[in-house]
Amino acid sequence: MPHAEHVFLDGRVTLQVGDLTDQAVDAVVNAANSSLLGGGGVDGAIHRRGGPAILEACREIRRTAWPDGLPTGQAVITTGGRLPARHVIHTVGPIYGRHGGREAELLGACYRNALALAEANGLRSIAFPAISTGIYGYPADQAAHVVSLALSRHLSGGTSAVDEVRLVFFDRRQLASFVAHHAFPA
Ligand code: ADP
After folding, report:
1. Given the CA of residue 45, which atom of ligand 1 is nearest to it?
2. pLDDT tens digits, residue range 90-132?
3. Residue ranges of the domains in the chain?
4. I want to staple 169 with a disulfide (CB 3.0 to 4.6 A). Which of 19, 89, 92, 174 is the partner?
5. Is-contact 94 102, C-beta < 8 A?
6. Residue nearest to atom 9 of ligand 1 (CA)
7. 131 lines ligand 1 (CB under 6 A)
8. 138 Cα to the center of ligand 1, angstroms
């Protein structure tokens, strides 16, 4: 169980250290790249553990909905394959410094659009990695501020059926940085 100090928004958001691919939730969110055809970091781990069904579903999305790739900030949903999670919601985080000052807006859009897709599919629990803070270079302290504000606004609207949002950090240092810089209401 996460320590009480790592629970926010009346228990709907929890922070924990762990591996995203271990999470038994309705959907885990993939920090994908726009090709949707696999990459390093979380993306590689999800495809390795989830097996070929996820990649096949991503190829189908490229063939149909997004032939030129998924734009930054958008989200799509596939099977979870062999993951403990039933679904994967793939979103493309901003590459820090490459969006002319729109990075925060785009990072917030990743979380909002992933939640909206979960809601549209009747899902209740979702686990996020720290999108863009790895290979894409988004400073973790700034990401904490942006992500906590986006989640607070979205979940306090009262219309979301998602009642469990897990923020999963790969190590204790990343979690501590988030805790130090978040903007969740007390
Ligand atoms: P991006 O390209 O969006 O930066 P990365 O996958 O490189 O995505 O990293 C995003 C974050 O996820 C980083 O903080 C990284 O440490 C973390 N991470 C990498 N693998 C895992 C995993 N299996 N579970 C949880 N977090 C992970």
Report:
1. 23
2. 999 999 999 999 999 999 999 999 999 999 999 999 999 999 9
3. 23-181
4. 174
5. yes
6. 134
7. yes
8. 11
142: closest CA among 152, 132, 156?
132
Q: Report H helices in 51-93.
A: 52-63
What are φ and ψ of residue 170, in 5° steps?
Answer: -70, -30
| Residue indicated by tokens 């309705």 | 26
* CB within 8 Å of 3: residues ≥ 6 apart: none
User: pLDDT for 141-176, tens place per residue?
Assistant: 999 999 999 999 999 987 889 999 999 999 999 999
CB of 167 closer than 6 angstroms to any ligand 1 atom = no
**Cα–Cα distance between 175 and 79 in angstroms, integer?**
28
Distance between Cα 159 and ligand 1 center (Å): 29
Alpha carbon distance 172, 170 (integer Å): 7
Q: Identify the sign of the CA torsion 95, 96, 98, 104.
A: positive
23-181 has which CATH code? 3.40.220.10
Determine how β-strand 7-8 pairs with β-strand 27-32: unpaired
Report pTM: 0.97
Task: Please list the active-site residues.
Answer: 43
Q: Is the CB of 168 under 6 A from ligand 1?
A: yes
